[in-house]
User: Fold this.
Amino acid sequence: MSPENEWSIQEIARLAGTTRRTLRHYHAIGLVTPSRIGDNGYRYYDADALVRLQRVLLLRQLGLGLPDIGDVLAGQRDDIAALRSHLEWLAHEQQRLGRQMASIERTVTKLERGEKPMAEKMFDGFDHTEYKDEVERLWGTDAYTQSDSWYQSLSQDQKDDFLIAAAELGADWVAAAQKEVATDSDEAQALAQRHFAWLDGIPGTPRTPDGHPTKEYFMWMGATYVADERLAKNYGGLEGATFVRDAMAVYADRNL
Assistant:
């Protein structure tokens, strides 16, 4: 039995609305350390540990990733600086969502009037050309030109299908990251295979002689998701994007 001023990991998981696996992960990365570990291997938490856990959960609710939370708790980054960084991301996201809402509203209005929506207005906020300069610099002008020509040639339904497939893939990545599955697990590697197949369907990507995306390109994409917060948000933020990158790297090493 635990002392009166300590609680078991099961009790804390129930009271905090989290899972034992999450608490074990927080312990492993040094965010919340149990006050002691019993002879039976069970973790126990005292009041100080609970205060720290409460702070971690609060910062998580505010949208900070685990690396940022670790910096805050270690005193390497104050709460205000971390939250200001998150606020900037939210402001960018608000602008992007506002453009998407306006785009959708225009489409609805056109359809209600029996008019055909204008394709160039329908995808404001879904800009696939944001990375034109970087793609051309790394992979050549032809790589961007082919992919852009392919996208522009799609019908509206095909464009919708492409964007929906990307959103569904992103949502599945987020779900896997939240479950904290291993990057080399069957679930993560199945997602990496889907991701590879999705990229394989986009003309202009750097190709091997057998016609599939190169290992270098596939791993570059994974690294880009982490480096660019605009892409990281599609995977739940930096933590989720890091999980995607690492799982893609495992897939590339095994299969490409």
